[in-house]
Amino acid sequence: MKAIAVHPDAIVVTSRIWQTNATALRAGGEALLIDSPYFPDELEALPALLRQAGFEPNALFATHADYDHLLGRFAFPNLAMGVGDPTMERIRAFPGEAQRALREEDARNYVERSAPLALGGVQSLPVPGYVELGDQELELHPADGHTSDGTALLVRFANLLVCGDYLSPVEIPWISNSGALADYRATLARLAPLVESVELVVPGHGAPQRRDSALRLLDEDADYLDALERGEERPALPKGRDSGRQREIHVENLTTLR
Ligand SMILES: [Zn+2]
Predict the structure, then answer these.
(1) Which of 127, 223, 239, 250 is deepest in the core (most CB within 10 A)?
(2) CA gap 202, 46 in Å, rounded
(3) Ligand 1 midpoint to CA 195 (Å)
(4) How far is the CA of 36 from the centre of ligand 1 (A)?
(5) How confident is the prediction along the chain (258 residues), in pLDDT tens digits per residue?
(6) Measured in angstroms, how far is the CA atom of residue 31 from the centroid of ligand 1?
(7) In the chain, where the domains are located
(8) 165 C-alpha to center of ligand 1: Å?
């Protein structure tokens, strides 16, 4: 697990697997943890790591309901988790979905946990909307398409956009079963001016990106969606993302859209 300070009041923690990012923010004596690392040892070490950096989260937030972003309560079992309304709808419509997916992934990776995933008290927030953090405010923007839910957080006081599973330097656009290509396009269009307005973008997976590289990823992703919509079997994948695993995701995308 890797931790980098991206702003005096923002730290990004990256899991050893899938380069999954969790972002801690602080303002006015409060702190928020967005998303989570994956492995039990990472989750166990997280509270002390954040405390040493001066972050003591008093709330959690998940960008979307995929299990790999919902594990914050393993690290902070007493904290409530905030989610956008569409994420709450998904959790209600598919109870146990995240728990089941986590069990399967854990089995695949020979990972053992001391307890099953319990989401606890989940608080639903209107998107678009705002959430208060100490003396500051975060903007919540809809970010669906990868899945049926999704929230991007614009953090003006730290010049950051935390966008969930979009604009990744390591993963091509992934239209999962609940997602939709048209929604994905609309999200990219919605994210563009937000990216323009910040210095740094923290994607769900992969290194945080400066504004210019995030905009380049956004263009590449839009081009990829064009190729996907044309049903191309072997489109040119963006540089740095042309791997066997990303080809597999492309095949999954083709299957989902058919
Ligand atoms: Zn993810």
Answers:
(1) 127
(2) 18
(3) 19
(4) 10
(5) 999 999 999 999 999 999 999 999 999 999 999 999 999 999 999 999 999 999 999 999 999 999 999 999 999 999 999 999 999 999 999 999 999 999 999 999 999 999 999 998 899 999 999 999 999 999 999 999 999 999 999 999 999 999 999 999 999 999 999 999 999 999 999 999 999 999 999 999 999 999 999 999 999 999 999 999 999 999 999 999 999 999 999 999 999 998
(6) 22
(7) 2-257
(8) 5
Distance in Å, CA 69 to ligand 1 centroid: 6
The CATH architecture that domain 2-257 belongs to is: 4-Layer Sandwich (3.60)
Cα 101 to ligand 1 centroid, rounded to whole Å: 12
Ligand 1 being an ion, which residues bring their Cβ within 5 A of it? 66, 68, 165, 204
